[in-house]
Amino acid sequence: MRPIAIASLATVAALAACTPATYKDSRGNDLVVSLDQPNIQDFNQAADKLVQSMIVSGVLANAPRKPAVMGISRIVNDTSSQFDTDQLTKKVRIALLNTGKIEVTNTIGLGGTPEDPMAKGVQDMKDFESGRANKMPDLPDYTLTAKILENRASAGDTKQVSYIFQMSLTDTRSGRGVWEGEETITKQGQKNTVGF
Prior knowledge:
The protein has four helices and seven strands; from the N terminus they run H-E-H-E-H-E-H-E-E-E-E. The protein is of the alpha/beta class and 196 residues long.
C-alpha cells in the first residue's frame, strides 16, 4: 500500500474515533472532571451547600428588615487557576434572591465602585430631583465575602486536589460575622476524565 493511502486511512480512522460534541446537563454525572481547575459541577455543588447552610442557620430571620439587603464584598481566588469568581457568587446570589429573604444592592460596591453604574446614576438623579441628594445611601444590612483555596497532594501516579470554598456573612450594624460556611470538594485520579 502506498504511503499516501496509509496516511489517508489513518486520518479517517482518527476522525471516526473522535467523540462528537453534545449538550450535557450542567448538573449531571457525565461531565468532564478536571484535576487542573474547578469545574462547573464544583461551583454548583459549593454554591448549593453554602446557600443551604446559610438558610438553615436562621441568621436571615434576625435581619433588621425583610427582605434583608446584602452587598457583595471581596471574593478572593487563592488557587493556581484563573477563573471568574462570579461562577460561585452569581449562583449564591440567584439562590438567595429566589428565597425572597435577601435583596442584593448593585449601587454600592467594594471600593466605592457600584456593580451597576447605570442604576447608581439613576438613583443619584432621583435623589437629586427629590431634594434628597445629601441623604444617607441605603446601606446593606449584610456583606458577603468569600475565598476559594486549593490543596494539592499526590502519591505515586495518583493526584489529589481539594478546592475549599469559604464564605462569610457580616452584619453591618455590628461588624461581626453572623454566619460562616465552608465546602470542600476533593477530586482524585491520574488524569482528567468524564463522569463522577
